[in-house]
Write a structure and sequence with these properties.
Elements (H helix, E strand, L loop, with lengths): L1 H6 L3 E3 L4 E4 L7 E4 L2 E3 L3 E10 L3 E10 L8 E9 L2 E13 L4 E13 L4 E16 L2 E15 L3 H6 L6 E14 L10 E7 L2 E2 L9 E13 L5 E13 L30 E2 L2 E2 L4 E13 L3 E13 L4 E5 L2 E5 L8 E10 L8 E8 L11 E5 L4
Antiparallel strand pairs: 1-4, 2-3, 5-6, 6-7, 7-8, 8-9, 9-10, 10-11, 11-12, 12-13, 13-15, 14-15, 15-16, 16-19, 17-18, 19-20, 20-23, 21-22, 23-24, 24-25
Length: 378
């Protein structure tokens, strides 16, 4: 189908295909597809400021046809006052003479939190295979070594970090369904993913926990060229008996790819002014998108979400036993706003200028009226 061709990200299909029977046959046709070749190579260089990371510079290169057979290759470096990230990745879409996917990623990340510093290095290998016409099953094996240093007295007393140095080995089975009509800028179709990451001492990991994550996105054409986009997410992480949830695996919401108008990692449970992350979260997004030619888009949005601590964790703080737990509530942190999106030749994703109004922030949450971002909203 033409939707599968568009999902490759190689062509912009602009007209209905012309189908003509092959003379002298009864079961064969010629199909002529008119379109424009899309940009397969992307180079980005830029910078910005966020409430969590401070100032940063970012440079990245990616291609969706590295060796001429649809291979994906990407390099990314992000340098900031609080976070440095480096990564390299490669994906082969066709192995064993079948449509199986094999890919790898290597990374290093250094982060400076208010309470501690964290360095993570590692990599992953993923194998995927088709299930139906639009769906795939994937299995990812990942290894990450995390080192935590400079823990403050408050953080140490709260006892949310059980190991200052840990090896995290994780196996993640996932199911993916994608019927969207474009890889980068869809206007119709459905995207759905569900995954179950598992880390356990039997795999050689220093921590034992499991996660569940699911996301569903729906795009539907509306009046003329405008369309509606809806997104819903749910995730949870739980420790196996006798273990704690690693601080790096807890959930923090906020920012241009989550709940706009709330700064990155600010939507989270807190204790005594310390935002420590949830073990369960829900996120909802809705957009009405109006294109203005091929260069600009206008988008009106509404976001909502919250992170919870449903799995009670007891710890000792200042000589008292404290139970960290928050009740389930559907009084979600919400925001509404407007985006101006600019498409530039060097990037398949738009440059986004975002104006937001948080509707019901909690006292400890940091908010912002304007933010700048490059990439998808969800």
């Amino acid at each position: 189908s033409m939707r599968k061709v568009a999902q490759l990200g190689y062509f912009k299909i602009q007209q209905t295909p012309v189908i003509t029977p092959v003379e002298g046959t009864e079961d064969k046709v010629d199909t002529t597809v008119n379109g424009e070749e899309d940009n397969r190579n992307t180079f980005e260089f830029g910078g910005g400021y966020s409430g969590f990371e401070g100032g940063f510079l970012q440079s990245s290169y990616s291609t969706r046809n590295f060796l001429g057979r649809g291979e994906e290759f990407n390099l990314t470096a992000r340098l900031g006052g609080r976070t440095n990230r480096y990564s390299i990745g490669f994906t082969e879409p066709w192995i064993f003479n079948r449509p199986y996917t094999l890919g790898f990623t290597l990374f290093r990340m250094d982060r400076k939190f208010m309470q501690f510093n964290q360095t993570s290095v590692g990599g992953s290998v993923v194998l995927g295979m088709p299930v139906t016409y639009f769906s795939r099953f994937l299995v990812r094996y990942s290894y990450e070594q995390t080192k935590v240093s400079g823990i403050s007295g408050f953080e140490n007393q709260l006892n949310l970090i059980s190991l200052q140095r840990s090896n995290i080995i994780q196996v993640t089975p996932s199911f993916l369904y994608d019927s969207r009509n474009h890889f980068y800028v869809p206007t119709a179709g459905t995207y759905f993913i569900t995954s179950l990451p598992i880390s356990h001492w039997a795999l050689g990991s220093d921590v034992s926990y499991y996660k569940f994550f699911t996301q569903a996105t729906y795009h539907h054409k509306a009046y003329k060229r405008s369309h509606i986009a809806l997104n819903g997410e749910f995730g949870l992480v739980r420790p196996f008996p006798g273990h704690r949830i690693p601080a790096s695996e807890r959930f923090f919401l906020g920012g241009a790819g989550s709940i706009r108008g709330y700064q990155i990692r600010s939507v989270s449970p807190e204790f005594g002014g310390f935002v420590y992350g949830g073990d369960t979260y829900i996120g909802l997004n809705a957009e009405y998108i109006i294109p203005a030619g091929d260069v600009f888009q206008f988008a009106f949005f509404a976001d909502a979400g919250r992170a919870y601590t449903l799995h009670a964790a007891q710890t000792v703080f200042q000589g008292d036993i404290v139970t960290l737990k928050t009740p389930i509530t559907f009084d979600l942190n919400a925001s509404v706003g407007f985006e101006l999106r600019l498409f530039v030749p060097s990037s398949p994703f738009p440059v986004r200028f975002i104006w937001s109004k948080p509707l019901n922030p909690d006292p400890w949450q940091r908010t912002q009226t304007f933010e700048f971002n490059i990439g998808p909203s969800f």
